[in-house]
């Protein structure tokens, strides 16, 4: 996939100055041009926002200071870094620019190496701030989910434990309470683990512990553990596992992948249907597939399927809980292994999730 190039808007009323900057930038960046302040404001509000603006100060009708002021007053454009490029070199002029929200001040005639270095620095800072904002949004979602999804089960656990402590109960009732407490606590633990996994992945601290293992062996072990969940729901779990060569992967993380895919397949399957787990070797890849005969996923929802906190319109068939985190974690784990995951689905017929890992 071709990496998206960053876009820089050049605002200057002199064609010569525009040409100098375009010749300098076009090799590494996409450029947009505006010949005056009004045109610049129109450009940023009529299409794709630039990643950075190079803004002249001395322009007719609306000078660069006024343009910068208007950009910083608009919620949609206030975070775009503005770098003044001007022949005005007085300290008071620079201070005025910074007070209006500009991030830097370059004097004409520009020095190409310094200009490129400053642009690179400010784009890196912008990307870092955007990443931090994204992480803060994820953190806030964590807190919201934890407060909402943990409060009710915690209340239930507290109520059942208080009854067991205060009221003599028959053994049969105690057993049911204990089973309910165990089930509820397991659901809470999974939610907490998912939240912690996403937090680690998004923070950039996600490290793999690679060891030589066998994908079919690991898949068989996980299928055996998940089979009880499938049987309790009346879903048949079938394994068609090939004799694969050993390869390097993080066993714990790949176990997470298999567990998530299998439990998801069971969760969205009706009683009496089959979930099939397969492994095979294709050229230089090892493939793991999970196929169900469930409801299928609408085509327009597949692209967002692996996003954190994303849920489709398809609901679990027996009221099972779903946080919308599992598939996001699966995708991150597979990408960390430099593998791929794809979905083949048809509404009313079921879905297949295919994981491909490199043979190492």
Structure overview:
- The model has no long low-confidence stretch (mean pLDDT 86).
- The protein is elongated, with a radius of gyration of 28 Å.
- The chain is built from 9 helices and 12 strands.
- A 5-stranded parallel beta sheet has the order 2-1-3-4-5, with helices on both faces.
- It is α/β, with parallel strands linked by helices and 360 residues long.
- The protein starts with 6 loop residues before the first strand and ends with a strand.
- It has 3 domains: 104 residues, Response regulator (Rossmann fold), CATH 3.40.50; 71 residues, Helix Hairpins, CATH 1.10.287; 148 residues, Histidine kinase-like ATPase, C-terminal domain (Heat Shock Protein 90), CATH 3.30.565.10.
- Helix 5 runs antiparallel to helix 6, helix 6 packs across helix 9 and helix 7 runs parallel beside helix 8.
- Helix content is 48%, strand content 19%.
